[in-house]
Design a protein that fits this description.
alpha/beta
């Protein structure tokens, strides 16, 4: 195989670094041994250097046709100037200091009479990488490489560009002639500059939705960027989204029979959302918030990674018969192909490391006086070219296009037309990429979360502030919006009015807890909190005394966080009586007492209400201006933000909303909220129930089922915690139904259905363990004759360590959900149960089994390849069920065939048809009757 060729071109820049050393001289006559002015190659030179670093282990396969050296006279070169300084590495590291850019001073354009680039290089390179910085290259054809002039025919083009790129001669040439082979790498901030309606990220779900709209007929990119073969959009240090015209690899299991021309025809007319590689606990700019200063080169790192990926992205170019088998940890496939997730994940990890370690990425000249700390090249190189088993991309999650599943769970397996919440069907729902759609599969993931801990949802996008954690999309977006409000308020010295925020939620939902944990993150050591409960105030004088405490803190230069609990309580038998007393402080930053005005400094007012569960219902109270005697409308108009905290109950189970929502498919995330809370209570109060090695909690599945599915906790999170603490678990070895308190005590905190939910739940730990055993045995049998003889997992189930057994549980947790999807419900039988078979639903269950497996693989970044390489996230069976190998289908079948035996062994059997019909009629009757508290 001949060497692949890479050509790099673009704007040439000399970067002038002005370094502020800590011990600079104070006068002219003081000697100074270190120079403060450094000049390094930037622009296309820098991109070429990063590309060589990215492909350093491919010297025998890749040839670079290099740019002229920076010292060559007459080149069209710009000069950029940046000051550098030392910063704390992060807010958590007090002593570690790193070099980062302090301020960018500007850049001049090259002179118009500069000599054109004498480019006699390859006209048909495998990859042409262009660095368009808007410094003249885009509009001067004389500086373009031969590959895009007349007669040029590059195989792939990777364009790194910035706003404004549309309208340039280069863009017109590329989009008109090379769109089918063009990949564009651009930052999301550049898309915003050209008018894209992409807000500052509040959640990754919202980011995906808005990016999709930008590349739809309603977006500006539909007529230009959407014509490219692929677009890679960078969200700061948090994530990378890709849109592609290419068909997903998973629909190409017969790729060996196709040639390159066939592959070229299998592209969409416009790009479609492909995937988002992101850090689930962060957003676009949150990671660098605690790491001051700036670094350059992040977009070049992503461009270089995309260029390497483009070199070997087609499986049709060479024979793949010797690709490493499953279990081979080699990073060297014959074509060095890896999944797009690995490519982008490594680039994102390298970008973060570059900022974390600080410094410049280029190789320093031999005579450079720069201190060694100013170069992060070695550290970044290890991430781009890892040699061990650790995969730098593994810290990321993947949001995949749902079309890649081939079949959702489960349109083919049942005629049951279940209502589906709009949030789950039309909007992005990354949580359900992990759990599967619908209440049954959310319940299965919730059970796994309670038993196994946070590892069950580590890949789910989340908001995490101190001890407050939420994976509910609406809560994530709301609290992140509040975080953004507070950050802007802190930095805006001209805004002297109190920042007023309303926090709503049912009793026990954790309203104050969420904001206080957020404040710990935002204010760190400078937090100052005051809490006042207005229901305990007897007169206006009490409120004025509270205002004076706020004023004392604010005039000292601090920003106090002031909680006004029960702000919506009665004042001297007057409903909403306290609201009007806050109008002047909220609007004018002052209050009057005894005829004297007292001004506030900056402060944050948090109004936590108890009478309305959400902001919308609170606002509706004052919808009629003629009946608003409490000035409620004026109060609402002065709020600058709000947060609705849901708590452990399902939306629509409290207040006026109870009569509006009865469908359990709405808000299935409440099961995850309950599971997180239950696991947290066990960890805080009964840690002895959690195994130190496996992190598994010793709790009965029946108890978990009851805690998750009970209709309502009367007092929210406080009730859930009370139920657990009433069980007397201090000396218990396992949390079983026998530990539960009496019905009379339970009914203080939960609805009466709790007892039946615990009693009637048929699945015990034995069923799960048996299914895990059958799963492992089936996998072992299928692989005993393969080239995995040295694999440690090829041993009997009983010989596996507790940690090794956990992997086999992933298929067992959703047993109830899988059976319910094919309308089978299970009940206990006291006597022996005859063997039974699911003949009529066997194929449906096999498809469900495959969909669950494939969903898990897609979340982990896998894509289809002719041969499997787990480290590079390649798998031959990441494809729709009908297109996978017979061996893999047989593996699914063996697991499904084990279900009846596992049920029989544990004295379980399907409910009879009469029982199911009676329960169905009862459920439909209850759904027609409005529910009240």
């Amino acid at each position: 195989m001949s060497k692949k060729t890479i050509v790099v071109a673009g704007d040439l820049v000399r970067d002038h670094f002005l370094v502020q050393y800590p011990n600079a001289p104070l006068s002219y006559n003081e000697p100074f041994t270190e120079t403060v002015h450094h000049v390094l190659p930037g622009g296309a030179w820098f991109l070429q250097d990063v590309l060589e670093l990215t492909c350093m282990n491919l010297s025998d396969k890749v040839e670079f046709l290099k740019l002229p050296v920076p010292d060559e006279a007459g080149l069209a070169t710009s000069n950029a100037y940046t000051t550098w300084a030392r910063y704390r590495r992060s807010k958590d590291e007090r002593k570690a200091m790193v070099w980062r850019a302090q301020s960018f001073l500007g850049c001049n354009s090259p002179t118009k009479n500069a000599s054109p680039l004498a480019d006699g290089r390859d006209k048909s390179p495998d990859v042409l990488a262009l660095d368009d910085l808007g410094l003249g290259f885009r509009n001067n054809e004389a500086w373009w490489p031969a590959a895009i002039r007349d007669g040029g025919s590059p195989k792939r083009i990777i364009l790194k560009t910035c706003h404004p790129f549309t309208g340039s001669l280069l863009w017109k040439r590329l989009i008109q002639k090379y769109a089918d082979i063009l990949t564009v790498v651009i930052s999301v901030s550049a898309l915003r500059q050209r008018g894209a309606r992409i807000s500052e990220t509040l959640s990754w779900d919202l980011a995906v939705e808005q990016l999709k709209e930008e590349f739809s007929p309603q977006g500006q990119s539909w007529l230009d960027l959407a014509k490219c073969r692929r677009v890679i959009a960078l969200f700061g240090h948090g994530g990378i989204a890709t849109f592609s015209r290419c068909e997903p690899n998973i629909v190409m299991p017969d790729a060996k029979s196709l040639n390159v021309q066939d592959m070229e025809r299998l592209v969409h007319e416009r790009v479609c959302f492909e995937k988002l590689v992101y850090h689930p606990g962060e957003l676009e700019d949150t990671w660098e918030t605690g790491r001051p200063g700036a670094t350059f080169g992040g977009l070049s790192l992503v461009t270089a990674a995309a260029a390497r990926h483009a070199l070997f992205q087609s499986f049709t170019e060479v024979d793949r018969t010797d690709m490493p088998l499953d279990g081979n940890d080699s990073d060297q496939c014959p074509t060095d192909y890896r999944s797009l997730f690995v490519t982008l994940g490594r680039a994102l990890a390298a970008k973060r490391d570059l900022h974390d370690t600080g410094g410049w990425l280029s190789e320093l000249p031999a005579n450079s006086h720069l201190p060694e700390v100013l170069c992060s090249r070695a550290s970044v190189s290890k991430i781009l070219n890892p040699t061990g088993k650790d995969e730098p991309a593994a810290s990321c999650s993947v949001a995949f296009c749902r079309q890649q599943l081939g079949s959702e769970i489960l349109p083919k397996c049942t005629e049951n037309k279940r209502p589906v919440c709009r949030k789950c069907s039309d909007e992005s729902a990354l949580l359900y990429n992990l759990t599967g759609f619908g209440r049954n599969f959310a319940a299965a993931k919730a059970i796994e979360l309670v038993i196994c801990g946070d590892s069950a949802i580590s890949a789910a996008p989340k908001a995490k502030y101190g001890k407050f954690v939420s994976v509910d999309r609406e809560e994530v977006e709301r609290i992140n919006a509040i975080r953004a409000l507070i950050d802007r308020y802190k930095d805006d010295s001209s805004d002297t009015r109190p920042l007023s925020i309303g926090v709503f939620g049912p009793p026990g939902s954790g309203k104050s807890f969420s904001i206080k944990e957020l404040a710990k993150t935002v204010f760190e050591d400078d937090k100052f909190t005051l809490t006042f409960n207005l229901s305990q105030f007897s007169s206006l004088q009490d409120l004025h005394q509270a205002f004076h405490q706020v004023r004392d803190a604010s005039v000292q230069g601090r920003i106090p966080l002031v909680f006004w609990d029960e702000f919506d309580s009665y004042r001297e038998d007057v409903e909403w009586g306290w609201l009007k007393e806050f109008l002047a402080p909220m609007q004018d930053a002052e209050f009057s007492a005894a005829g004297i005005s007292h001004p506030f400094g900056k402060a944050i007012f948090v109004f936590a209400g108890g009478r309305r569960s959400d902001f919308q219902s609170f606002r509706d109270v004052f919808s009629d201006p003629n009946k608003d005697k409490s000035k409620g409308r004026d109060f609402v108009s002065r709020l600058r933000g709000y947060l609705n905290v849901k708590g452990p109950n399902r939306e629509g189970t409290s207040g006026e909303a109870a009569a509006k929502i009865h469908n359990h498919e709405c808000d299935p995330a409440y099961l995850i909220r309950r599971a997180m809370l239950l696991r947290s209570v066990i960890e805080r109060f009964y840690p002895h129930l959690i195994d130190m090695k496996t992190k598994h909690a010793a709790i009965s599945l029946a108890v978990v089922h009851g805690m998750l599915h009970v209709e309502k906790y009367h007092h929210g999170a406080r009730s859930l915690e009370s139920v657990v603490k009433m069980c007397g678990l201090d000396n218990a070895k396992m949390f079983t139904p026998s530990c539960l308190p009496s019905h009379s005590l339970l009914e203080m905190h939960v609805t009466p259905d709790f007892a039946d939910l615990v009693k009637d739940y048929p699945f015990a730990e034995g069923v799960i363990d048996d299914l895990a055993r059958y799963t492992h045995n089936a996998w072992k049998k299928e692989h005993e004759d393969s080239d995995m003889t040295g694999n440690e997992s090829l041993k009997d189930y009983d010989e596996l360590s507790p940690r090794e057994r956990i992997n086999n549980y992933e298929s067992a947790w959703p047993i109830d959900a899988k059976l319910r999807e094919v309308e089978i419900e299970i009940a206990r039988r006291a006597d022996d149960v005859e063997p039974f078979d699911f003949v009529n639903v066997r194929e449906c269950l096999c498809r469900i089994e495959h969909d669950i497996w494939m969903r898990r693989k897609l979340v982990d970044g896998f894509e289809w390849a002719p041969r499997t390489n787990k480290r590079l996230r390649l798998h031959c069976d990441v494809a729709p069920f009908d297109m996978v190998s017979p061996e893999h289908q047989r593996f699914d079948q063996v697991i499904v065939e084990a279900i009846p035996e596992a049920l029989r062994k544990n004295h379980l059997a399907p409910k009879n048809r009469e029982t199911l019909l009676a329960e169905k009629v009862k459920t439909e009757h209850e759904s027609l009757s409005p529910k009240t508290d």
